[in-house]
Design goal:
221 residues; alpha/beta; Rossmann fold
């Protein structure tokens, strides 16, 4: 991720439930919050889409932590079997451990915390939000599968924004049903003409703007 001279960025290694996972932490000057990115199926901290959103959040004075939820060995297995990417309890456990790490890291412990989840990662983010209700202050889902959060969906009280492409019809319907179950402040925004990966012109820019506005509203102190 390219960063401005006012942003400090470095790799981090996090002990998450007994294994070490890698992340990229970026902190802008006068940061007013921290957003942990929870990638979707088959993705990583190098996701072009998440890094593009991260740049916009940094400009909004939000620190970002992009994660590899899987170890390199797990990624190699998952590339063949896909056994980890849909294991939401497994992924959520890693997210919760990362949240715990962030609340004790000197550089970011004082920052209000939010989660940005994409695809299946959105489900893991919502489960973690339900498990850490006193810490997670906001959640944004991009093209997410909140339905995969299961019973945890009914326990999410953090303000949650669901962003879905207008042409991602199946996922849109799943998000509409999930919205009804969320207990806290919530909103579903449909990006017209966008498909699941938001590859259409300006679609990802809209996602980034919406996410930044939501996090600033709910994290800014």
């Amino acid at each position: 991720m390219s960063t401005s001279s006012a942003t400090t960025a470095w790799p981090v290694h996090i002990n998450a439930a007994g294994v070490v996972v890698n992340g990229d932490l970026s902190i802008p000057a006068n940061a007013q919050g921290l957003v942990i990115f929870v990638h979707g199926s088959g993705s990583s901290r190098h996701s072009r889409r998440n890094r593009a959103v991260g740049e916009v959040l940094l400009q909004a004075r939000l620190a970002t932590l992009l994660l590899d939820l899987l170890t390199q060995d797990e990624e190699r297995v998952d590339d063949v079997t896909a056994e980890f990417r849909f294991d939401i309890p497994f992924l959520a456990n890693r997210v919760s451990a990362t949240i715990d790490w962030a609340t004790t890291h000197p550089s970011i412990a004082s920052l209000p915390l939010g989660l940005f989840g994409a695809s299946t990662g959105a489900a893991a983010a919502l489960v973690a939000a339900a498990e850490r209700p006193s810490v997670v202050r906001a959640v944004v889902s991009r093209g997410g599968r909140p339905d995969l959060a299961g019973a945890a969906l009914d326990r999410v009280t953090a303000p949650t924004l669901l962003i879905v492409g207008g042409r991602d019809e199946v996922v849109l319907e799943l998000n509409r049903h999930a919205l009804e179950r969320l207990r806290g402040p919530k909103q579903l925004v449909v990006v017209p003409h966008a498909t699941h990966l938001f590859e259409e012109p300006d679609a990802l820019d809209q996602v980034a703007r919406l996410a930044a506005e939501w996090f600033v509203r709910h994290l800014a102190t």
